[in-house]
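Hey, resending since the last one bounced:
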Amino acid sequence: MFYARAFQVFRNERAALATAALLVFANAAAGVVKPWPLALIVDSVLGSTPFPAWLGRFAGGWNRAESITALALLSFALHGLQSLLQYGQQALVIRSGLRGLASTRQSLFETLLRRSMRSHQRSSLGDLIYRASWDVYAFQTFLQKGVFGALAACSALGGMIWVMARLNLGLTATTLAVAPILVLMMRHFGPGMTRLSDAAHRADSGITSMIQQRLSALLVIQAYGQEDREAASFSDRVSSSFQARLAQHRYELRYLVLIGFGFGVGLASILWVGAIQVSQGALTIGGWLVFLAYANQLFEPLSQLSHIGASLSDARAGMARVFDLLDAPDEGRPDTSRGRSIQIVRTATTATAQTALSEKGYSPSTEPIDRLRQGPSVGPGRIEFDSVCFAYGNAVPVLKEFSAVIKPGATVAVIGPSGSGKTTLLHLLYRFWDPVGGRILVDGVDLQEVRVKEWRRALAYVPQETILFPGTIRDNIAYGRGVAAPKEIEEAARAAFADGFIRRLPQGYATFLGDGGARLSTGEMQRLNLARAYLKDAPMVLLDEPTSALDQESEQLVIQSLCQHAANRTVVFVTHRECMLSIASQIIRLG
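The structure tokens again:
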């Protein structure tokens, strides 16, 4: 069942929730006793009805003032006890709800991190952000307002109906006559509230998506003077969200108005029947007041149940969107837990590569350095593309029957016109995607048979768009390793010719970078990306247009750092720049 699965989110909170349930029952019991001090004052202190036998043993010798004081103190104690019980119950439920919310949000984020690039391309980033940020609150609503709201209301109803039936069966039947009408209303309005709540969630998600998209493209929007156009478009989206939420709340308000009329009919019936019984002597005034207090308390949990219907409808819509994302099939995601182990080693630079680098004035080391991996070695890392085909969805194939061989230690340039599949080639090597036809072999082993995590540990990647995270420069360089000594970080920065400009910054390596690496030039950001890759010290390095956005001086620094870092490694880079080709020992032309 859907709600059973939702409750599994809180399986680690069983002890706390069991304690909260006991407090709910104790609170309901206190609520049942709470009206009796008033009845005893009216009937037994101010009136002539004797105290009940169990109380007469204590209050038999009290005068009127003492009896009123004692019963008033008892009323105060019951109200205080109920408040403390409610506080304890709410505190436990809120904490458990927040823990369940945190757990769900963590699971959702981990799912998003592991989804394949193919799946992410088919989704709206803003919608994913909305689900992870806001839809997950539905689980907290489900627990607090749904499960425990219903438990509190039902326990209070059960206790009060039992006492009311013992007091006056006829008035109890009159009170409960409205209950079937309320149940029918909840069943009638429930599906509509769920449907409208889902539409409202989707409309709000569209707003989040548009904000994310437009802020990402802010430079283009301002450059082309399209602020007014985008504002008008956003206004339409806000209007759609407004209408969706308005329709949802109007529907809920119609439901609550009808529920209110039902309560009014029930209370009026109790007043009419009870007054007649009092006038006929069949019911004392104190008993009638107790019954009215119970009736009001009875209608309160009934009212809570009616609101719970709306809350559960809204929570169900949000939880369903989260479950849909968690359960969505991800055919493009490789299984990271299975496959063969593989060992990739750094090898001596090939003679062709040495010649190319020497002509540029560099003398890389030729000493092999082993990169130990788990499992048996299957070779030094010869890569073969065997009739590889790939297409994005149902689009025209980007690669068709592509074949090539990359030898260990080669420095390979991948060139070709835009759209010919250069970046796709790197992504296939990194297994962001897998070929739809053909094979990629590593020393004769199909890459899809190799454990993904082990394979990626042998690779370092520098994307075309520089990616830096909010944090210090030191943290950004160390990102690929997680933990690295300051000396190692600085050596990687020097290898990328980034150490000089870093030390000129006011805080040096401790300089904090904002979103997207604000405060740095494009060339400086690219060199930090190179330093990150160098620090990983992987035997294979993949670079996508590493100099495309750089000026000539920055480009020469990047080329120089690549030449030095290429020693004993396989380097594959995509480029459009002629000067980059001079350092390549092999060129692959696409298109």
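The domain at 2-327 is CATH 1.20.1560.10 (ABC transporter transmembrane region fold).

Sorry for the duplicate.
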